[in-house]
Amino acid sequence: PVFAQDTREMDAHVHGVSTAEIAVEHGKAEINIHAPGMDIVGFEYEATLAEDKDAVEAAIRIMLMPENVVTLPEAAGCRLTEVLAHLHGGDHDHDDTDAHMDDDHDHEDHDEEHDHADEAQHSEFHVSYAFACEDEDALTTINFPFFDQFGNAQEIEAQSVTESGAGQAEITRDAPELTLE
Predict the structure, then answer these.
(1) H-assigned helices in 78-166
(2) Residue burial 156-172, b: 16+ Cβ < 10 Å; e: rest
(3) How many CB atoms lie within 10 A of CB 28?
(4) H or E element that contains 56
(5) Which runs of E-coded beta strand occur in 37-154?
(6) Most buried by CB count within 10 Å: which residue of 93, 100, 143, 157?
(7) Which residues partner with 132 through β-bridges?
(8) Which residues, given as ranges, of the chain have pLDDT below 70?
């Protein structure tokens, strides 16, 4: 019951709180982050003004460079193989940007379908990174410069899965590092 409560809360859209799903196995690391639009650009309504559209595009550009959002230990020898950053929200078209860094890697399609009928006023940024790592054992922490980039973000509720187990953690502006189990 306690885990079910945590899971239900992580699915909720709360300003200041983002979520991260992290999987590390077989030399690959995948990181998916979902952040409320309010935390990233300061609003959640559909961007119709040029100024708002520019803010959304600037946020996506920041997210497309993983070193702005997450950093992995150099000793792990990880290189980016894929990045996807986009905005989900209401009933409007989404700004999608997808960059495949390495065409010969195998991965599953992680596109998700969401029912946004009851949250038309909310927008959420999604960013996904895939890395190929030379030394998975050296991948013991993940830092989140995310908080330096997005001043309204206060916390990331993270779930992680590695070959040695699963874990949950709260990453905060004051403690922006996740230790992997």
Answers:
(1) 146-149
(2) bbbbbbbeeeeeebebe
(3) 17
(4) helix 50-63
(5) 78-89, 96-100, 123-133, 141-143
(6) 157
(7) 28, 79
(8) 1-13, 90-121
